């Protein structure tokens, strides 16, 4: 291992992340009681310009009145982009009026580290002024070519940072990709056209201690397509995926949870290496395979996630 290492950000279970428009107040109670690990209340793309102010008020009320923590939910708010005049009011009003109930702020369309710095500065001053008793985390959407070009510096831009999300729809638009499909495979492309971007963002996340979350899959009438996309992301190392419809929550939880057989193999690997260490050996054989310290690190990742899921009771 390099002498230079970055401590992991706060660890949270984030297999499924339900998107809830700030204008859809009827969804708030349902989101509270659903099986999603994470819920983000949206001020941005899912809200029309004329409804921005009301959506912000709805979100503040939902944060204050609903018991998100008691329902074992992490709750985030996606603010509007820094290129809009809505953003500053989102940050100021939501943090000042409901900051103690908010786990993270999601910043959309982040292009440079300075974008994150701006929000971090605002949140820090509000926390100090309002004497908030907990630290609000930050997450960012990488959904433009500028953001992907700067993803490594973005990942290092704030001590509040917890996660990066891959926003495939805006990323496709930014790339001028020939598609109008959100998150699905393009039959004209040999393979997964988003693999390179997904992998680059993943590496930035893991290098600098952040969670890596895959974004939306637009066709909620195609559960098999959703599961295929989630499997590809999970195989790379992503730990969660968005659900833009309640029907996708169960699919995300299923695919982003390590299979029982994988967990069994991981626990067996750790046990075999523990026995080998007692015998003064650094490696061992398990089911005809060589296992060593690298095997242990892989196994520990699986076991930690399985234990977090078990602790939640799902």
Overall description:
This protein has twelve helices and ten strands. With 314 residues, it is an alpha/beta fold. It folds into two domains: 16-257, Phosphoenolpyruvate-binding domains (TIM Barrel); 261-312, no CATH class. The protein has an eight-stranded parallel barrel, surrounded by six helices. Strands 9-10 form a two-stranded antiparallel sheet. Helix 1 (26-33) links the parallel strand 1 and strand 2 (38-42). Helix 2 (52-65) packs parallel to helix 3 (87-98), helix 3 runs parallel beside helix 4 (113-130) and helix 11 (260-278) packs across helix 12. The protein is globular and about 65 Å long. It comes from Methylohalomonas lacus. Mg(2+) binds at residues 143, 170.
Features:
alpha/beta; TIM Barrel; 8-stranded parallel beta barrel; 314 residues; magnesium ion binding; 46% helix; single chain; globular; 12 helices
